[in-house]
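Field reference: sequence -> structure
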Amino acid sequence: MRAHLLAARLAGTVATTRERSLGRYRMFVARDPRALIGLEPERDWLLGDLLQLMCRRCGVSADPDHASGQDVIDPDRTIAALDAFAERLAAAAEAGAPVLFGTGHPHRLLGFYAGLAAALSAAGCSVLTPAQGRSVDITTRFGVRTYNLDYVRGVAMMREPGARRGASEPGAHTHSPLPLRVALDSAMDAGEPLPALVVGDHGWVCGAGQLGIEAIGLADSDDPAPFVGEAEGRVSVVVPLDDTVRSDYYRPLTRYVLNRACLSQ
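Structure field:
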């Protein structure tokens, strides 16, 4: 796994630039919603504190004067987090817990989550799909845009209006926590089960953790919010890795996690 992480640039020297990461860290310190992605930090984070945290969790440089070049993610930290991630999946499978999967990066991460969803479903967990087809208004850099909540192979994502429901083509890219909130509100209004565990990234993980629902997921080195949520005890596990490489590069991670969790794909 370590060799694969380095070869695929999921860890080691990654495509994420130091400039982008520092920009996102400053946005988080300023409590910009675009960087908080659904999390309300319990404390005021200074840039130096945040750099130290991201160094411990990801392996990036803690030096504020290191301001250019590529980020580096420690593959050993990635593997340790994947092991902890697998433990939480195994616990959910053993309990037969209802689970909600969601991603803001469907072009890259749909297959990773879909493999996990299939395995948990086979193990007896309910893979939830609340608010199928519901409209969600999300603020983007182009203004407020309306998307539809859809599920593909048990994984929630946002789609452009007019896209075929349940189609295999990936959906839209978003970091917003609003889809998670809409899904939970819909489930409560309909008297449907709520998830005991949310698996995903960005707003799905941070939004769930903020609401007190156990959450595990993936995050790149330029997204500090999930790692802060983990440090503050509201997110259970965050796996540091590049979340924008080719989708097939995540398949070995699916196999690794399911093997560690003693689940069949």
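Note: The longest strand covers residues 143-152.
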